[in-house]
Design brief:
This protein has 288 residues and is α+β, with helices and mostly antiparallel strands. Helices cover 62% and strands 12% of the residues. Helix 4 runs antiparallel to helix 8 and helix 7 packs antiparallel against helix 8. The mean pLDDT is 86.
Length: 288
C-alpha cells in the first residue's frame, strides 16, 4: 500500500509527572528530513525517536515536536535544600548587620538562588518512558494518516490509468485505418503525377511512409508502463521515485505518438494522454 508524504498526527498524555503532547507533520521532500524538537529534560530519547521514525518513514520533511508541562503534575511541590537555604539566610543576616538600612530579602529571589531549589532531584524514568510511549502512539497515527491519503492517491491514479487504457485502445483501433488511408493518398498522388514509377521503388516509399505512421510500438510500451505503474501501486514500500520515472516514460511515448500522428482524432488522443499524465505526475510527487 502506497503512502503519501504529507500527514499530521497529535497525541496527548497526562500523569503524575505532568502533561505531554506530541505532534508530527510532514510535507514533500526528495529524501527523509527529520526535524525533532524535545525539551532538554527529555533529550535522552531523541535518538530513539529518530530511529523509530526512520524505520516507518522513507521520504518527506517531517517535523516532530514534543512538549512537556510539569506544572500539570499532581504533586508539584518544590524540593527545597534547607541546608542551602539556611546558609543563604545566614549570609544575608550577616550583611544586614553591617547595612542596617537595607531592605529585607525578597523571598522569591531567595528561592531563585542557585541550589536552594533542587532542580535535578526528580526521577525522570517515568516521564521519559511516557514520552517515548506517547511518541510511538503519535507515530502510529501519523503512519495511518499517510496511508489513508495514499489510498486516495492510489484510487486517483488507477482511474487515470483506466482512462489512458481507453485512449490507447482507441488509437490502436484507429491507427490501421489512418495508415491505409494515408497509403491510398500516396498512391493516388503518384498516379496524378503520371510518373513512370518503378514498382519496387513505389513499394519501398510506401513501406517507409507506413513505418513513419506506425505507432504499435509506442502503444505497446505504454501498456507495459501501465502494468509497471499498477505493480508499483501495490507495493508496500517507498515507490515515489519509481513512479515519477514511469511518468516520464509515459510522457515520452505520448510525445512520440503526437509527432507521428497524421490524423485529428489520434492527435486529440495524444493531447488527452499528455494531460492525464501531467495530472498523474503532480499526484505522484506526493507519494513516499
Amino acid at each position: 500500500m502506497i503512502r503519501s508524504m504529507t500527514g499530521y498526527a497529535r497525541a496527548e498524555s497526562q500523569g503524575s509527572w505532568g502533561r505531554m503532547s506530541c505532534e508530527l507533520r510532514s510535507v514533500n521532500h526528495r529524501y527523509l528530513d527529520l526535524q525533532i524538537k524535545v525539551p532538554d529534560e527529555l533529550r535522552v530519547i531523541e535518538n530513539d525517536m529518530r530511529a523509530m521514525a526512520a524505520a516507518r518513514i522513507s521520504r518527506g520533511k517531517v517535523e516532530i515536536g514534543l512538549r512537556f508541562n510539569r506544572d500539570a503534575a499532581g504533586n508539584n511541590a518544590l524540593d527545597i535544600d534547607r541546608e542551602r537555604l539556611s546558609a543563604v539566610l545566614t549570609a544575608v543576616n550577616a550583611i544586614s548587620v553591617n547595612l542596617p538600612a537595607s531592605a529585607p530579602p525578597d523571598l522569591l529571589q531567595l528561592l531563585a538562588w542557585p541550589g536552594v531549589v533542587r532542580q535535578d532531584s526528580q526521577d525522570w524514568s517515568a516521564p521519559t518512558a511516557a514520552a517515548l510511549g506517547l511518541f510511538k502512539d503519535a507515530l502510529g497515527g501519523f503512519t495511518e494518516a499517510r496511508q489513508r491519503e495514499g489510498e486516495r492517491l492510489q484510487h486517483y491514479l488507477l482511474e487515470r490509468l483506466d482512462a489512458m487504457n481507453t485512449l490507447v485502445d482507441a488509437v490502436r483501433t484507429r491507427a490501421p485505418l489512418v495508415r491505409a488511408a494515408w497509403l491510398e493518398r500516396l498512391k493516388g498522388r503518384f498516379l496524378e503525377l503520371g510518373m513512370d514509377i518503378d514498382p519496387g521503388r513505389l513499394a519501398q516509399e510506401m513501406t517507409l511512409a507506413a513505418q513513419k505512421l506506425d505507432v504499435d510500438e509506442e502503444m505497446s510500451r505504454l501498456l507495459s508502463h501501465f502494468i509497471e505503474v499498477r505493480d508499483g501501486l501495490k507495493r508496500d514500500e517507498a515507490v515515489g521515485r519509481r513512479l515519477d520515472f514511469l511518468m516520464q516514460e509515459l510522457n515520452r511515448e505520448a510525445n512520440t505518438l503526437s509527432s507521428k500522428s497524421q490524423d485529428a482524432e489520434m492527435t486529440r488522443a495524444a493531447v488527452e494522454m499528455k494531460v492525464i499524465i501531467e495530472q498523474m505526475r503532480e499526484q505522484v510527487q506526493n507519494i513516499e
